[in-house]
Write a structure and sequence with these properties.
The protein is an alpha+beta fold. The protein contains six helices and eleven strands.
Length: 182
């Protein structure tokens, strides 16, 4: 019975004590993550996800240096400074070359919207995937949590199978220390 009352690991322990499996679970199976028809998507600006990504990046820093892969420091610096101003949705892109055309990028910028509280919000920017980080990061304006509602994303993402997709996150499930976190 006490196990059901215990706080989840992301609230009970600092990220440095999370296991690799716990980090992977947060990024793939938690309320902040979604697998949509073969695409891995998560709310990268949510505190537990942000902490998981930061910890995974810290652990892999030596491995990346050994492989000679690029850095995604610009994105992480942006999120560190602006996490409370923007919502960032990360989408794993298996074929990033499709994002390289101006036409595909323009279509993505025009068609990606966030819907919350009956309002639509367009992306305000994005960070393309890199060799070191296969995630496209879509940046939306930060909004107040719609009470009892959901945050939905209608996406056009070149480089994934079925580039049109809809992802929905129920706000009541996105709790961190008793408050909605996204």
């Amino acid at each position: 019975m006490l196990l059901f009352l215990a706080p989840p690991f992301w609230e009970a322990k600092p990220p440095s004590e999370w296991t690799d499996a716990q980090i992977a679970w947060l990024l793939t199976e938690s309320a902040w993550a979604s697998r949509e028809k073969g695409a891995q998507i998560y709310l990268a600006s949510a505190r537990p996800i942000w902490q998981a990504e930061r910890e995974r990046r810290r652990r892999q820093a030596g491995k990346a240096a050994e492989r000679g892969t690029g850095d995604v420091r610009e994105y992480f610096d942006f999120l560190e400074e602006n996490r409370d101003r923007y919502i960032v949705l990360a989408v794993r892109i298996p074929l990033p070359q499709y994002l390289l055309t101006r036409k595909a990028t323009k279509k993505m910028e025009e068609r990606c919207v966030m819907i919350a509280g009956g309002r639509r919000y367009r992306i305000v920017g994005h960070f393309p995937p890199t060799a070191a980080d296969r995630y496209l990061r879509l940046v939306f304006p930060r909004i107040e949590a719609p009470a009892g509602g959901a945050i939905e994303f209608n996406l056009y993402v070149p480089g994934v199978p079925l580039p049109f997709r809809r992802v929905r996150f129920e706000v009541d499930r996105l709790k961190y220390r008793g408050r909605p976190e996204f």
